[in-house]
Write a structure and sequence with these properties.
Helix content: 40-55%
Distance between the termini: 18 Å
Strand content: 15-25%
Order of helices and strands: HEEEEHHHHEEEH
Protein backbone atom coordinates (compact mmCIF):
# COMPACT_ATOMS: atom_id res chain seq x y z
CA UNK A 1 0.00 0.00 0.00
CA UNK A 2 1.32 3.45 -0.95
CA UNK A 3 0.63 6.19 1.60
CA UNK A 4 1.95 9.17 -0.35
CA UNK A 5 1.94 10.03 -4.03
CA UNK A 6 5.33 10.19 -5.68
CA UNK A 7 4.97 13.83 -6.73
CA UNK A 8 4.40 14.92 -3.12
CA UNK A 9 6.98 12.71 -1.42
CA UNK A 10 9.73 15.34 -1.41
CA UNK A 11 7.49 17.98 0.14
CA UNK A 12 6.26 15.49 2.73
CA UNK A 13 9.85 14.52 3.59
CA UNK A 14 10.85 18.14 4.22
CA UNK A 15 7.66 18.98 6.11
CA UNK A 16 7.85 15.81 8.23
CA UNK A 17 11.41 16.61 9.26
CA UNK A 18 10.49 20.16 10.20
CA UNK A 19 7.34 19.14 12.09
CA UNK A 20 9.27 16.68 14.23
CA UNK A 21 11.51 19.53 15.40
CA UNK A 22 8.43 21.02 17.05
CA UNK A 23 7.17 17.79 18.64
CA UNK A 24 8.60 16.81 21.99
CA UNK A 25 9.93 13.29 21.63
CA UNK A 26 9.42 12.76 25.36
CA UNK A 27 7.40 14.38 28.11
CA UNK A 28 8.29 13.31 31.65
CA UNK A 29 6.48 14.27 34.86
CA UNK A 30 7.53 13.40 38.40
CA UNK A 31 6.84 14.51 41.93
CA UNK A 32 9.95 15.19 43.97
CA UNK A 33 10.89 16.99 47.22
CA UNK A 34 7.37 18.24 47.86
CA UNK A 35 7.00 19.63 44.35
CA UNK A 36 6.91 18.47 40.77
CA UNK A 37 9.12 18.57 37.69
CA UNK A 38 8.12 18.43 34.07
CA UNK A 39 10.68 17.71 31.37
CA UNK A 40 9.68 18.46 27.78
CA UNK A 41 12.34 17.05 25.47
CA UNK A 42 12.50 18.15 21.86
CA UNK A 43 15.06 16.64 19.46
CA UNK A 44 17.48 19.53 20.01
CA UNK A 45 16.31 21.12 23.28
CA UNK A 46 15.10 20.16 26.75
CA UNK A 47 12.86 22.40 28.82
CA UNK A 48 12.53 21.67 32.53
CA UNK A 49 9.80 23.21 34.62
CA UNK A 50 10.02 22.84 38.40
CA UNK A 51 6.99 23.59 40.57
CA UNK A 52 7.54 23.98 44.32
CA UNK A 53 10.93 22.27 44.38
CA UNK A 54 13.27 24.10 46.78
CA UNK A 55 16.62 25.43 45.50
CA UNK A 56 15.80 24.68 41.86
CA UNK A 57 15.22 27.28 39.15
CA UNK A 58 11.62 27.23 37.98
CA UNK A 59 12.54 26.89 34.30
CA UNK A 60 15.72 25.76 32.62
CA UNK A 61 16.75 25.07 29.03
CA UNK A 62 19.45 22.68 27.91
CA UNK A 63 20.76 21.15 24.72
CA UNK A 64 21.39 17.42 24.39
CA UNK A 65 25.12 18.09 24.90
CA UNK A 66 24.70 20.20 28.04
CA UNK A 67 22.10 17.79 29.46
CA UNK A 68 24.44 14.85 28.84
CA UNK A 69 27.35 16.64 30.51
CA UNK A 70 25.16 17.63 33.47
CA UNK A 71 24.28 13.96 34.02
CA UNK A 72 27.94 12.89 34.17
CA UNK A 73 28.45 10.02 36.60
CA UNK A 74 24.72 9.42 37.17
CA UNK A 75 22.72 6.33 36.36
CA UNK A 76 20.83 8.16 33.59
CA UNK A 77 23.90 9.41 31.70
CA UNK A 78 23.60 6.49 29.27
CA UNK A 79 20.03 7.54 28.46
CA UNK A 80 21.17 11.10 27.82
CA UNK A 81 23.97 9.70 25.64
CA UNK A 82 21.40 7.82 23.55
CA UNK A 83 19.41 11.05 23.23
CA UNK A 84 22.60 12.81 22.12
CA UNK A 85 23.12 10.22 19.35
CA UNK A 86 19.48 10.56 18.28
CA UNK A 87 19.81 14.35 18.27
CA UNK A 88 22.92 14.15 16.05
CA UNK A 89 21.08 11.92 13.57
CA UNK A 90 18.07 14.22 13.68
CA UNK A 91 20.26 17.29 13.14
CA UNK A 92 21.67 15.63 10.00
CA UNK A 93 18.10 15.05 8.78
CA UNK A 94 17.17 18.65 9.52
CA UNK A 95 20.17 20.03 7.63
CA UNK A 96 19.50 17.77 4.66
CA UNK A 97 15.83 18.82 4.63
CA UNK A 98 16.76 22.51 4.56
CA UNK A 99 19.17 21.88 1.69
CA UNK A 100 16.51 19.78 -0.07
CA UNK A 101 14.02 22.63 0.28
CA UNK A 102 16.46 25.18 -1.13
CA UNK A 103 18.10 23.04 -3.83
CA UNK A 104 15.48 20.48 -4.84
CA UNK A 105 16.88 19.75 -8.31
CA UNK A 106 20.40 19.14 -7.01
CA UNK A 107 19.20 16.90 -4.20
CA UNK A 108 16.91 14.93 -6.52
CA UNK A 109 20.00 14.20 -8.65
CA UNK A 110 21.80 12.48 -5.74
CA UNK A 111 22.52 8.77 -6.14
CA UNK A 112 20.40 8.12 -3.04
CA UNK A 113 16.71 8.98 -2.91
CA UNK A 114 16.41 11.97 -0.54
CA UNK A 115 12.93 10.92 0.60
CA UNK A 116 14.21 7.51 1.67
CA UNK A 117 17.28 9.11 3.22
CA UNK A 118 15.18 11.47 5.33
CA UNK A 119 12.79 8.66 6.20
CA UNK A 120 15.67 6.48 7.36
CA UNK A 121 17.18 9.28 9.42
CA UNK A 122 13.81 10.01 11.07
CA UNK A 123 13.34 6.32 11.89
CA UNK A 124 16.88 6.03 13.28
CA UNK A 125 16.59 9.11 15.48
CA UNK A 126 13.09 8.13 16.64
CA UNK A 127 14.42 4.70 17.62
CA UNK A 128 17.16 6.37 19.67
CA UNK A 129 14.59 8.66 21.32
CA UNK A 130 12.41 5.67 22.21
CA UNK A 131 15.36 3.81 23.72
CA UNK A 132 16.32 6.92 25.69
CA UNK A 133 12.72 7.21 26.93
CA UNK A 134 12.86 3.68 28.31
CA UNK A 135 16.26 4.24 29.93
CA UNK A 136 15.52 7.61 31.57
CA UNK A 137 12.74 7.17 34.12
CA UNK A 138 11.86 4.32 36.42
CA UNK A 139 8.32 4.39 35.10
CA UNK A 140 7.67 4.27 31.37
CA UNK A 141 4.05 4.82 30.29
CA UNK A 142 3.08 4.05 33.89
CA UNK A 143 4.94 0.70 33.95
CA UNK A 144 7.83 0.15 36.38
CA UNK A 145 10.69 -0.96 34.11
CA UNK A 146 13.42 -0.43 36.71
CA UNK A 147 16.23 0.30 34.23
CA UNK A 148 16.68 4.05 34.35
CA UNK A 149 17.36 4.76 37.96
CA UNK A 150 15.97 8.25 37.42
CA UNK A 151 13.06 10.01 39.07
CA UNK A 152 9.97 7.87 39.60
CA UNK A 153 7.39 9.46 37.35
CA UNK A 154 5.53 9.10 34.10
CA UNK A 155 7.28 9.24 30.72
CA UNK A 156 5.33 9.57 27.47
CA UNK A 157 7.27 9.32 24.18
CA UNK A 158 4.44 10.57 21.97
CA UNK A 159 6.59 12.71 19.65
CA UNK A 160 9.06 9.85 19.11
CA UNK A 161 6.19 7.55 18.10
CA UNK A 162 4.84 10.15 15.65
CA UNK A 163 8.32 10.71 14.23
CA UNK A 164 8.75 6.96 13.78
CA UNK A 165 5.44 6.81 11.91
CA UNK A 166 6.39 9.70 9.62
CA UNK A 167 9.74 8.06 8.88
CA UNK A 168 8.03 4.79 7.97
CA UNK A 169 5.62 6.63 5.66
CA UNK A 170 8.60 8.23 3.88
CA UNK A 171 10.37 4.89 3.55
CA UNK A 172 7.24 3.35 2.01
CA UNK A 173 6.77 6.15 -0.56
CA UNK A 174 7.08 4.83 -4.10
CA UNK A 175 9.14 7.20 -6.17
CA UNK A 176 9.00 7.47 -9.97
CA UNK A 177 12.48 7.27 -11.45
Amino acid sequence: MVWVRSEYAGELAVLSTWITALLPWNVFYATVAGGAVLFVRFPLLQVRYAFGVPLVRATSLSTPVSAYLLQGGTSVQVAYGVWLVGAAVYLAALLISVYYYREEERVEAWSVDPVSLLGGLLVASAAAFLVASVLMPERFLGIDVGVGGGLPGLSVPLGAAIQLGLGVVLLRAERVA
